[in-house]
Amino acid sequence: QAINQTGGRLIYELSAKGGVLTHVAIDSLHNQPQLRKLNLANNKTIDDEACKKIAMYLPRLQRLNLYGTSVTDRGLVYLLDLQELKLLHLWDSKVTWRAMPQLRERVNAI
Length: 110
Known about the structure:
- By secondary structure, the chain is α/β, with parallel strands linked by helices.
- The protein contains 4 helices and 4 strands, in the order E-H-E-H-E-H-E-H.
- Helix 2 (48-57) runs parallel beside helix 3 (73-79).
- The longest helix is centred in the middle third of the chain and has 10 residues, at 48-57.
- The N and C termini lie far apart (30 Å).
- The mean pLDDT is 89.
C-alpha cells in the first residue's frame, strides 16, 4: 500500500523487514524497475514465487536481503537472471548449500 502512495515517484531503496508480506506484495513493485536495494528480511511468507516476481520486476536490483524468509533453492534459480545483483543475504532461509555453486558465479558476496 505504501508503494502505491508514492504518487508514481521512482524508488531506489525499500526496506520492508519483519512483516507478513507475500509474493502478492511484490506485485506493487512492477513499476519500479530502477529499485537497487530491497530488504525483505524476516518475512516468513516471502517464498520462491516472490523471487520469480523480483527477478521479473526488478532487473536492476543490486542488493537483496532474504534473511529469515521461506525462499528455497528453487527460488534462487529465478534470481540468477538479476545481472546487477552484487549482494544477497540468505541466512536463516530454506536455501541449501547445493544451490550455492551456480549462484556464486553471479553474485560477489553471499
